[in-house]
Amino acid sequence: MTARTEKDLLPRKDWPDAVEVLNERGLSDIVLLCEHASNHMPAEYRQLGLDAGHLRRHIAWDIGAAEVTRLLSARLDAPAFLSGYSRLLIDLNRPLGTPGSIPAVSEDTGIPGNVGLDKAERDRRAKIMFSPFHERVAAHLDRRVAEGRPTRIVTIHSFTPVFLGVARPWHAGVLHANGVDLAETILTALRADAALNVAANVPYVISRDADYAVPVHGDDRGIPAVLVEIRQDLLSTRSGIEEWADRLAAALPAQTKAIP
Fold first, then answer.
1. Torsion on CA atoms 36, 168, 196, 60, rounded to nearest 10
2. pTM for this predicted structure
3. What span, in angstroms and rounded, lies between the C-alpha atoms of 86 and 65?
4. CA distances from 13 to 7, 10, 77, 86, 158 (A)
5. Residues in a beta bridge with 152
6. 77, 102, 103, 234: most buried, per Cβ within 10 A?
7. What helix, strand, coil percent values describe the chain, rounded to 5?
8. Would you call 35 helix, strand, or coil by DSSP?
9. Strands (E), the chain
10. What is the spatial distance between Cα 170 and Cα 228, in angstroms, rounded to a whole number?
C-alpha cells in the first residue's frame, strides 16, 4: 500500500492535482506544456493578501493559454500537461530557489503572502505543486524514449500587450535556446500571414536562471523545444483562441508513430 501524503489529506476540490493530463497516448510527436494554465489558489492562502481582481491578471496565470493548449491537443492528437495552481504560489517555469519561483513582487505588484516565507512553506509548495507536474512530464518523456517515439516540446504561454508602461508590438514570439530549427519552422509558417508581427525570442529570452521547461525537459535531453508566447488581447475571445490554435496547428505539422 502506498503511504498517504499531506496532499492526500487535503480537500480535493480546494487542492486539485498539480497537473492535468490530456490525451497522454496521443500519436503526435508534439508534447504540449502549459505551466501557467491556472489561477487557482487554495482558500488557506487567502489570495496571498491580494484583491480578487489581481488573480484575474497576468501575474496569476497566462490568460488564454490553457484554452489554446486544449484545442491544440485535440487538433494535433498531442499529449498536453497543464498546471493546476496559480503561478503566484510557485511558478512552474522558474527554477526552484530563484527570485521568480515564489515572487515577492510580480510586475509592479507586491505579493504580501509571499514575503518572508520559511523553508518549510517553500518546500511544501514545491512538493505539492511543482515537483508532481515536472515528474509527470519527465516520466512521459522517458516512456517516449523507451518506445522509440520522436518528440518535440512546445510550451504555450501568453503575454501582456503593455508591460510596465511599455507597449509590445508583437502578436506572438517563439522563444528557444537549442531548438532553433523547430522555432524557425513555426515562425516561417506564421509569417506567411503578412499581417502578423512575430519574431524569435520576444518579448523574453530563454535562460537557465528564468526558465525551466525548455532547458530541463528539452535542451538537457536533446529534445527540440520552444516556448510560444501569444499576446493576451488576441486571446480575449473564443474566436481569437480558436484562430491561434488553428494557426499553431498548421505551423506544427505533426509526425506520428503508432504506439507499440
1. 10
2. 0.95
3. 13
4. 12, 9, 29, 15, 26
5. 30
6. 102
7. 35, 15, 45
8. coil
9. 19-22, 30-34, 80-83, 105-106, 109-110, 152-159, 162-163, 166-167, 172-175, 198-200, 225-231
10. 12
